[in-house]
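Researcher: We plan to redesign the surface later, but first we want a full-length starting point. Tokens attached.
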């Protein structure tokens, strides 16, 4: 199958290379060039909107920055076109950085509205600046040149445009299938889990924002040298909307879908512009109305875009073969058993008038399993959120190996070696089981965007995936490795979360009701796994309602009731404690 895909790819490239040699009307080649230029912007939007969940109507403005940068530098300052390529990309990225910093902090519908606002503002800005010719723009831009050959005809610049498109598509696919890609893909599924494993959410959002901006600038740079003149019109909001339409039509999560979407929208636009006036009998931008209907229809009937329908025709790849590797990730040096790990000191959390955690103090040592029990609403999950810095303390302190945890971010807490599972499972259902688990090892890798784009991260990636697979084997989910995580049963998802937590190589493991939904045999296996972890020196804090499960396992028990610690000690002692009997365990003992 991998081979088949390779052959398909090669066939595709040969077809693309042959197109200008065919006796096609020149108008077709121009259309294909425009499709190529639009594909670059749409690929950026696939990452930004389809994968990252950030909807932008303003991408055309970045094309403008790429185009104007080279237009000004080549016409007014005599720069050679190739020299302006990195500068155009740099300007695109440099504009995307501050805009991104503002935009990615907006949430809900404010984000697309924000992109409309700056998309419009930049369009008018282009039209106002004297240096760039106001609404007349700049003409006389030199063509691209290579070894004395001037790319003047649309048939020749076709190769440059599509060369960039194919390289970008391949690089973007590489990026998505990597450590950075997992972080980006985690942005959509509620970011709390990703954050708990050290993904810097703002940084990941900024990364896709700048990436998309740079791709749009590349498209603008190519456009300027194809058209040989620029003016503000193609960089306005109309085009921004069209680019978004392309990404959505293609299927906002698929890189090749972006090219598909760009083709569909531009060919349709061309047909409509020729057909509609003769049908209706007057000329106007009627195609925009059809586009609007199309967008609604696609969102209604196939949210995943039309490319997903095409993909259904291609047989699915069987089990993915992982790259062989002899290397292993370095293991954390575990503190000696009995060393205090985390210590809560009068930790307190209030929500308005409600005291969810009321001056609670206890500690968890290395090589020890501590059970944290109490009725629903007692404050157990909130305690987890305090330790992992997901919610800030209202009072008191939490120390971990001498460091104050409350001053750290969730990612920094993860870096200390603290991993957790969530009572309400937070997995990424569209990612495979393996990828979900590999997210847990995020902090154990270091490859950045450029390495992943260029596929220089393969050695590290192989080690990360091998580690994720090892953890899957350890918890007994290896058979589900390549299935979408959303296919698993609830109990299996809890186990998946444990594998993800183990991929962090934790010294302290926080498990929030891991046995809920497990069958008896599975509970037994989980219990054995926790005992093995304890023997390795891991400290475990376990929230669990099943008392027979807890009693046979934990070394120490902490009981909360209405946020207050009412008893702690050895399990056998605690279950006799009058306050505990009264509050909670009465029926069990
Ligand atoms: P447990 O995990 O022991 O069942 P929780 O820690 O989830 O309990 O909740 C403790 C109390 O805090 C409950 O009364 C719950 O309603 C409240 N609570 C938890 N999170 C929030 C929040 N984000 N905002 C307001 N109240 C909350
Ligand atoms: Mg809870």
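Model: Full-length starting sequence:
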């Amino acid at each position: 199958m991998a081979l088949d895909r390779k052959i398909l790819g090669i066939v595709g490239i040969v077809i693309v290379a042959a197109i200008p040699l065919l006796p096609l009307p020149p108008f077709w080649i121009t259309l294909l060039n425009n499709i190529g230029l639009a594909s670059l912007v749409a690929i950026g939007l696939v990452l930004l909107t389809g994968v990252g969940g950030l909807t932008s109507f303003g991408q055309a403005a970045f094309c403008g920055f790429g185009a104007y940068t080279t237009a000004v530098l080549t016409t007014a300052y005599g720069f050679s076109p190739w020299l302006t390529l990195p500068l155009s990309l740099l300007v695109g990225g440099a504009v995307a950085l501050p805009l991104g910093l503002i935009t990615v902090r907006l949430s809900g519908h404010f984000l697309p509205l924000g992109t409309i606002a700056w998309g419009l503002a930049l369009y008018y800005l282009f039209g106002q600046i004297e240096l760039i010719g106001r609404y007349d723009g700049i003409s006389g831009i030199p063509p691209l040149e290579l070894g004395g050959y001037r790319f003047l005809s649309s048939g020749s610049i076709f190769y440059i445009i599509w060369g960039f498109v194919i390289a970008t598509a391949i690089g973007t696919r590489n990026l998505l299938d990597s450590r950075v890609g997992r972080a980006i893909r985690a942005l959509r599924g509620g970011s709390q889990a990703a954050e708990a494993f050290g993904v810097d959410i703002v940084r990941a959002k900024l990364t896709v924002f700048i990436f998309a901006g740079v791709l749009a600038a590349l498209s603008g740079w190519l456009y300027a040298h194809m058209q040989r003149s620029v003016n503000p019109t193609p960089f306005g909001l109309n085009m921004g909307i069209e680019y978004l339409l392309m990404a959505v039509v293609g299927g906002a999560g698929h890189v090749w879908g972006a090219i598909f979407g760009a083709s569909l929208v531009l060919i349709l636009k061309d047909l409509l512009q020729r057909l509609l006036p003769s049908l209706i009998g007057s000329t106007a931008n009627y195609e925009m109305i059809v586009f609007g209907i199309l967008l609604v229809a696609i969102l209604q009937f196939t949210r995943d875009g039309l490319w997903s329908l095409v993909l259904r025709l291609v047989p699915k790849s069987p089990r993915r073969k992982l790259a062989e590797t002899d290397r292993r990730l370095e293991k954390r040096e575990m503190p000696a058993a009995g060393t205090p790990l985390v210590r809560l000191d009068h930790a307190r959390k209030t929500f308005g008038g409600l005291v969810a955690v009321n001056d609670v103090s206890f500690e968890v040592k290395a090589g020890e399993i501590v059970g944290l029990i109490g009725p629903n609403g007692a404050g157990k999950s909130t305690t987890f959120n305090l330790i992992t810095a997901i919610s800030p303390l209202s009072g008191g302190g939490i120390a971990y190996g001498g460091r104050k945890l409350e001053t750290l971010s969730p990612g920094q807490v993860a870096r200390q070696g603290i991993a957790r599972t969530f009572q309400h499972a937070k997995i990424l259902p569209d990612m495979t089981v393996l990828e979900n688990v590999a997210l847990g090892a995020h902090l154990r890798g270091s490859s950045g965007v450029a390495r992943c784009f260029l596929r220089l991260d393969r050695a590290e990636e192989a080690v990360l995936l091998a580690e994720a697979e090892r953890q899957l084997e350890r918890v007994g989910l290896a058979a589900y490795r390549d299935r979408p995580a959303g296919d698993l049963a609830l109990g299996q998802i809890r186990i998946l979360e444990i594998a993800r937590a183990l991929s962090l190589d934790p010294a302290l493991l926080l498990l929030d009701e891991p046995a809920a939904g497990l069958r008896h045999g599975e509970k037994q296996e989980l219990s054995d796994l926790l005992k093995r972890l304890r023997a390795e020196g891991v400290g475990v804090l376990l929230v669990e309602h099943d008392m027979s499960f807890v009693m046979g396992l934990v070394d120490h028990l902490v009981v909360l009731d209405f946020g207050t610690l009412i008893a702690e000690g050895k399990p056998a002692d605690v279950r006799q404690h009058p306050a505990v009997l009264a509050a909670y365990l009465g029926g069990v003992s």
